[in-house]
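Worked example 3 (structure in, sequence out).
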Protein backbone atom coordinates (compact mmCIF):
# COMPACT_ATOMS: atom_id res chain seq x y z
CA UNK A 1 0.00 0.00 0.00
CA UNK A 2 1.54 3.27 -1.07
CA UNK A 3 0.97 6.66 0.51
CA UNK A 4 0.97 9.81 -1.60
CA UNK A 5 -0.72 12.44 0.55
CA UNK A 6 1.10 14.72 2.98
CA UNK A 7 -0.24 14.86 6.57
CA UNK A 8 -1.71 18.30 5.88
CA UNK A 9 -3.59 18.86 2.65
CA UNK A 10 -1.86 21.59 0.70
CA UNK A 11 -3.59 24.07 -1.58
CA UNK A 12 -3.69 22.75 -5.16
CA UNK A 13 -5.79 23.54 -8.23
CA UNK A 14 -9.01 21.59 -8.55
CA UNK A 15 -9.79 19.55 -11.62
CA UNK A 16 -10.85 22.01 -14.26
CA UNK A 17 -14.39 22.36 -15.55
CA UNK A 18 -15.88 20.20 -12.84
CA UNK A 19 -19.63 19.75 -13.46
CA UNK A 20 -22.29 19.92 -10.77
CA UNK A 21 -22.00 17.11 -8.23
CA UNK A 22 -24.64 14.62 -7.17
CA UNK A 23 -24.53 13.24 -3.62
CA UNK A 24 -23.87 9.88 -1.98
CA UNK A 25 -24.43 10.04 1.78
CA UNK A 26 -22.52 7.13 3.32
CA UNK A 27 -22.79 6.19 6.98
CA UNK A 28 -19.30 5.19 8.14
CA UNK A 29 -17.37 4.19 11.24
CA UNK A 30 -13.68 3.91 12.04
CA UNK A 31 -12.34 0.58 10.76
CA UNK A 32 -15.56 -0.52 9.01
CA UNK A 33 -15.55 -0.93 5.20
CA UNK A 34 -18.30 0.94 3.38
CA UNK A 35 -19.29 0.87 -0.31
CA UNK A 36 -19.67 3.85 -2.64
CA UNK A 37 -19.68 4.53 -6.38
CA UNK A 38 -16.76 6.01 -8.28
CA UNK A 39 -17.43 7.73 -11.60
CA UNK A 40 -15.46 6.18 -14.45
CA UNK A 41 -14.82 9.39 -16.39
CA UNK A 42 -15.44 12.29 -14.03
CA UNK A 43 -13.88 13.31 -10.71
CA UNK A 44 -15.59 12.10 -7.56
CA UNK A 45 -15.40 14.43 -4.58
CA UNK A 46 -15.01 12.91 -1.09
CA UNK A 47 -15.60 14.80 2.12
CA UNK A 48 -16.29 13.97 5.77
CA UNK A 49 -19.31 15.56 7.39
CA UNK A 50 -18.18 17.95 10.12
CA UNK A 51 -14.42 17.32 9.77
CA UNK A 52 -11.66 18.03 7.23
CA UNK A 53 -9.80 15.19 5.55
CA UNK A 54 -6.20 15.08 6.75
CA UNK A 55 -4.81 12.07 4.92
CA UNK A 56 -5.58 9.52 2.20
CA UNK A 57 -3.97 6.12 1.70
CA UNK A 58 -4.35 3.77 -1.24
CA UNK A 59 -2.96 2.64 -4.55
CA UNK A 60 -2.61 6.16 -5.95
CA UNK A 61 -1.48 6.70 -9.56
CA UNK A 62 -0.53 10.33 -9.01
CA UNK A 63 -1.18 13.12 -6.53
CA UNK A 64 -0.15 16.74 -6.21
CA UNK A 65 -1.60 17.00 -2.68
CA UNK A 66 1.84 17.01 -1.15
CA UNK A 67 3.08 19.87 -3.32
CA UNK A 68 3.09 23.52 -2.45
CA UNK A 69 0.74 25.75 -4.41
CA UNK A 70 2.16 26.70 -7.80
CA UNK A 71 4.43 23.67 -8.15
CA UNK A 72 4.30 22.38 -11.75
CA UNK A 73 2.28 19.19 -12.14
CA UNK A 74 5.10 17.65 -14.12
CA UNK A 75 6.87 17.13 -10.79
CA UNK A 76 4.26 14.68 -9.54
CA UNK A 77 5.29 11.21 -8.49
CA UNK A 78 3.65 8.56 -10.67
CA UNK A 79 2.90 5.00 -9.60
CA UNK A 80 2.42 3.02 -12.85
CA UNK A 81 0.30 0.38 -11.12
CA UNK A 82 -1.88 2.97 -9.36
CA UNK A 83 -5.65 3.06 -9.66
CA UNK A 84 -6.70 6.68 -9.06
CA UNK A 85 -5.54 10.25 -9.56
CA UNK A 86 -5.85 12.25 -6.36
CA UNK A 87 -6.26 16.02 -5.95
CA UNK A 88 -7.08 18.09 -2.89
CA UNK A 89 -8.70 21.25 -1.61
CA UNK A 90 -7.02 22.11 1.69
CA UNK A 91 -9.31 25.03 2.46
CA UNK A 92 -12.40 22.83 2.32
CA UNK A 93 -10.73 19.67 3.61
CA UNK A 94 -11.93 17.66 0.59
CA UNK A 95 -10.29 15.35 -1.95
CA UNK A 96 -11.08 14.52 -5.57
CA UNK A 97 -10.39 11.11 -7.10
CA UNK A 98 -10.63 9.85 -10.68
CA UNK A 99 -9.87 6.26 -11.72
CA UNK A 100 -7.25 5.37 -14.33
CA UNK A 101 -6.95 2.32 -16.56
CA UNK A 102 -9.63 0.08 -18.04
CA UNK A 103 -10.04 -2.42 -15.20
CA UNK A 104 -13.39 -2.80 -13.48
CA UNK A 105 -11.80 -3.78 -10.17
CA UNK A 106 -13.11 -1.75 -7.18
CA UNK A 107 -10.73 0.75 -5.61
CA UNK A 108 -9.81 0.52 -1.94
CA UNK A 109 -9.17 3.89 -0.28
CA UNK A 110 -8.51 4.87 3.33
CA UNK A 111 -9.65 8.40 4.22
CA UNK A 112 -8.63 9.92 7.55
CA UNK A 113 -9.78 12.81 9.71
CA UNK A 114 -8.22 13.85 13.01
CA UNK A 115 -10.43 11.37 14.87
CA UNK A 116 -10.98 8.36 12.58
CA UNK A 117 -9.94 6.46 9.44
CA UNK A 118 -12.67 5.26 7.08
CA UNK A 119 -12.23 2.33 4.70
CA UNK A 120 -13.90 2.85 1.31
CA UNK A 121 -14.62 0.24 -1.33
CA UNK A 122 -15.24 2.37 -4.43
CA UNK A 123 -17.03 0.52 -7.24
CA UNK A 124 -16.46 1.97 -10.70
CA UNK A 125 -19.64 3.16 -12.33
CA UNK A 126 -20.46 4.88 -15.62
CA UNK A 127 -22.14 7.82 -13.89
CA UNK A 128 -21.67 11.61 -13.87
CA UNK A 129 -19.48 13.47 -11.41
CA UNK A 130 -20.54 12.76 -7.85
CA UNK A 131 -19.87 13.65 -4.20
CA UNK A 132 -19.36 11.09 -1.44
CA UNK A 133 -20.16 12.44 2.03
CA UNK A 134 -18.96 10.29 4.93
CA UNK A 135 -21.18 10.63 7.99
CA UNK A 136 -19.69 9.11 11.13
CA UNK A 137 -22.41 7.23 13.04
CA UNK A 138 -20.18 6.34 15.99
CA UNK A 139 -21.82 7.61 19.19
CA UNK A 140 -19.84 10.66 20.21
CA UNK A 141 -18.46 10.72 23.70
CA UNK A 142 -19.91 13.65 25.57
CA UNK A 143 -17.60 16.23 27.03
CA UNK A 144 -17.69 16.71 30.76
CA UNK A 145 -19.54 20.00 30.42
CA UNK A 146 -22.16 18.39 28.15
CA UNK A 147 -22.62 15.59 30.64
CA UNK A 148 -23.17 18.17 33.33
CA UNK A 149 -25.98 19.84 31.39
CA UNK A 150 -27.53 16.84 29.60
CA UNK A 151 -27.00 13.76 31.76
CA UNK A 152 -27.83 15.35 35.10
CA UNK A 153 -30.44 13.44 37.06
CA UNK A 154 -32.21 15.79 39.47
CA UNK A 155 -34.70 14.64 42.04
CA UNK A 156 -37.44 17.27 42.31
CA UNK A 157 -35.39 20.14 43.71
CA UNK A 158 -36.47 23.77 43.89
CA UNK A 159 -35.17 26.00 41.04
CA UNK A 160 -32.51 27.72 43.16
CA UNK A 161 -31.20 24.38 44.38
CA UNK A 162 -31.16 23.06 40.81
CA UNK A 163 -28.93 25.98 39.81
CA UNK A 164 -26.59 25.20 42.73
CA UNK A 165 -26.38 21.55 41.67
CA UNK A 166 -25.60 22.46 38.07
CA UNK A 167 -22.98 25.00 39.15
CA UNK A 168 -21.26 22.37 41.31
CA UNK A 169 -21.46 19.76 38.55
CA UNK A 170 -20.02 22.06 35.90
CA UNK A 171 -17.21 23.08 38.27
CA UNK A 172 -16.37 19.41 38.84
CA UNK A 173 -16.54 18.51 35.15
CA UNK A 174 -14.50 21.47 33.90
CA UNK A 175 -12.10 21.82 36.88
CA UNK A 176 -13.00 25.52 37.03
CA UNK A 177 -13.59 25.62 40.76
CA UNK A 178 -14.49 28.75 42.72
CA UNK A 179 -12.49 29.63 45.89
CA UNK A 180 -15.38 28.60 48.19
CA UNK A 181 -15.13 24.94 47.11
CA UNK A 182 -12.58 22.76 48.89
CA UNK A 183 -10.97 19.98 46.84
CA UNK A 184 -9.48 16.75 48.16
CA UNK A 185 -7.69 14.21 45.97
CA UNK A 186 -8.76 10.69 46.93
CA UNK A 187 -7.54 8.14 44.34
CA UNK A 188 -9.02 5.14 46.12
CA UNK A 189 -10.88 2.12 44.75
CA UNK A 190 -14.56 1.58 45.51
CA UNK A 191 -16.21 -1.82 45.13
CA UNK A 192 -18.96 -1.75 42.51
CA UNK A 193 -19.43 -4.66 40.06
CA UNK A 194 -17.18 -7.49 38.94
CA UNK A 195 -17.32 -6.08 35.39
CA UNK A 196 -16.03 -2.65 36.37
CA UNK A 197 -13.16 -0.98 38.18
CA UNK A 198 -14.50 2.02 40.09
CA UNK A 199 -12.29 4.62 41.77
CA UNK A 200 -13.08 7.78 43.72
CA UNK A 201 -10.73 10.35 42.20
CA UNK A 202 -11.63 13.66 43.87
CA UNK A 203 -14.00 15.16 46.46
CA UNK A 204 -15.46 18.67 46.25
CA UNK A 205 -17.04 20.36 49.30
CA UNK A 206 -18.92 23.64 49.38
CA UNK A 207 -22.29 25.42 49.16
CA UNK A 208 -23.99 22.75 51.26
CA UNK A 209 -23.10 20.09 48.70
CA UNK A 210 -20.47 17.39 48.40
CA UNK A 211 -19.35 16.36 44.92
CA UNK A 212 -17.55 13.12 44.12
CA UNK A 213 -15.74 12.46 40.86
CA UNK A 214 -15.26 8.79 40.00
CA UNK A 215 -13.57 6.93 37.17
CA UNK A 216 -15.33 3.79 35.97
CA UNK A 217 -13.51 1.32 33.68
CA UNK A 218 -15.01 -1.67 31.90
CA UNK A 219 -12.68 -4.56 32.80
CA UNK A 220 -14.92 -7.24 31.26
CA UNK A 221 -14.73 -8.78 27.79
CA UNK A 222 -18.14 -7.38 26.77
CA UNK A 223 -19.63 -3.88 26.37
CA UNK A 224 -21.53 -2.53 29.37
CA UNK A 225 -24.22 0.13 29.68
CA UNK A 226 -24.15 2.47 32.68
CA UNK A 227 -27.17 4.35 34.03
CA UNK A 228 -27.43 7.19 36.55
CA UNK A 229 -29.91 5.25 38.71
CA UNK A 230 -27.17 2.77 39.60
CA UNK A 231 -25.38 5.40 41.67
CA UNK A 232 -28.20 6.30 44.06
CA UNK A 233 -27.43 5.63 47.70
CA UNK A 234 -29.67 3.90 50.19
CA UNK A 235 -29.55 6.85 52.60
CA UNK A 236 -31.26 8.95 49.88
CA UNK A 237 -28.94 11.96 50.03
CA UNK A 238 -27.86 11.80 46.36
CA UNK A 239 -29.09 14.92 44.58
CA UNK A 240 -27.55 14.62 41.10
CA UNK A 241 -25.64 12.13 38.95
CA UNK A 242 -23.94 12.70 35.58
CA UNK A 243 -22.11 10.19 33.39
CA UNK A 244 -19.91 11.23 30.46
CA UNK A 245 -20.25 8.01 28.46
CA UNK A 246 -23.04 5.53 29.11
CA UNK A 247 -21.76 2.84 26.72
CA UNK A 248 -18.34 1.37 27.43
CA UNK A 249 -16.51 -1.14 25.30
CA UNK A 250 -13.95 -3.44 26.98
CA UNK A 251 -11.12 -1.35 28.41
CA UNK A 252 -12.92 1.99 28.02
CA UNK A 253 -13.37 4.42 30.92
CA UNK A 254 -15.76 7.22 31.81
CA UNK A 255 -16.08 9.86 34.51
CA UNK A 256 -19.04 9.63 36.88
CA UNK A 257 -20.10 12.67 38.91
CA UNK A 258 -22.19 12.27 42.07
CA UNK A 259 -23.47 15.17 44.14
CA UNK A 260 -25.04 14.65 47.54
CA UNK A 261 -26.22 16.86 50.36
CA UNK A 262 -23.51 18.27 52.57
CA UNK A 263 -23.56 19.56 56.11
Amino acid sequence: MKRFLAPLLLSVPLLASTPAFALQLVEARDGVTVDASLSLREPTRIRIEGAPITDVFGNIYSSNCGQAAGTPQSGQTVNPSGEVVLECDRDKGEVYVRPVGSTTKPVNLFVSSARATYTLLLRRSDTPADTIVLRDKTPRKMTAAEAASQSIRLQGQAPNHVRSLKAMLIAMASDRVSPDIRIEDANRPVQLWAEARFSLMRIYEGRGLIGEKYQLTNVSAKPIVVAEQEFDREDGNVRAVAIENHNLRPGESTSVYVIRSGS
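Notes: The two ends are 64 Å apart (CA to CA). Confidence is low (pLDDT under 50) at residues 1-21, 68-74, 150-156.
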